[in-house]
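Exercise: predict the fold of this chain.
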Amino acid sequence: MTSKTLQFKRPALHGDITVPGDKSISHRSVMFGAIAKGETTIEGFLLGDDCLSTIDCFRKLGVDIALDGTNVTVKSAGMHAWEEPKDILYTGNSGTTTRLMLGVLAGSNVHAILNGDASIGKRPMKRVIQPLREMNAHITGRADGQYTPLAVQGKKLTPIDYKMPVASAQVKSAILLAGLNAEGTTIVREEEASRDHTERMLRQFGAQIEVKDGVISFEGGQQLTATHVSVPGDISSAAFFLVAGALAQNSTITLRNVGLNPTRTGIIEALEAMGANLTITIDDENAAEPTGTIVVKNAPLKGTTIGGAVIPRLIDEIPIIALLATQAEGTTIIQNAEELKVKETNRIDAVVAELTKLGASIQPTDDGMIIEGPTPLRGALLHTYGDHRIGMMGAIAALLTEEAVTLDDADCIAVSYPTFFNDLNALM
């Protein structure tokens, strides 16, 4: 754990950057490559700690995975050729790895134990375990499967028709991945759409899947075929520089090859609602994952209300949106965001506590926060809680203060953005 002191004295930001590969897509590309038969090639893979945890898990299952920079090659004889791991599958700080692996392993031929770091040990797993057990999965763990460590004995599964109680791409994906080895039709019903990378990737690897009016269905027993995956830049990482460009005086930042999947672009809608100056150029909207270039320029901002169906489409960006709101004219209300409580930390409490240290006028609510702006920010020692997004929020806040901002644990940012500080410095 390394602290880092930042003192930028309100710089103008200019430049052209490409953020690292999308974390969600990077995870899934390795998982699908390991399930499929043949050689899958991946370009633009995110070399963050979370995604490397996914690679490590599949290597322990006997899958041949080679890295060459951000290019990854996965060679697999299919999931039924996996070896029973001799060691615990350690998922580090990655909730995506932990929860999706439960779905992957439930229908496999192996027995495996999953465990992560102290943060993962506090995150709720029952929301995944419950529907998987309804599919006849054999999963045991601490507090009856509420928390890691968790043991999975792979077996043949039965399909499920499941109505999602909350919008969660991780829960949905675990069910769909388990459904690959269920005899019959697996159905997932969503009231509010969560990110759809799993559905898109199932098609990309040759599966037949139907998505209509919030209902996702597909037949189990389909064999996936290895393919090539191009991972776009992560819009959740780009969000920090979109906000930086919107806030820092006289700034213009160009972000290239940003993923523009419609289930992930809530951050763009929020920025535009607050008056941000954005220009977006689509590269190929018909690609497996659409991408584009975003140019952001500094502009006056106004408060707004963010809630309802947009929340699942920007849930990871709420910490940096909260910082943005401290500099907007008027009141910003973030609501219907209860899921923030079960992220790497309770992000409602964490965001409010750290922005308050900086001088923000912010109050927590049961499902979000209320922020009054604009308020001048001051330097402070910030606690990151080991949460990469809280750490990056603090770093962007340092662009707005005359005094230094110190992060008590800057290393946590490597989970999703190992080159974050290099890219930030390149804009000054």
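Check your answer against the key: DSSP finds 13 helices and 23 strands in the chain.
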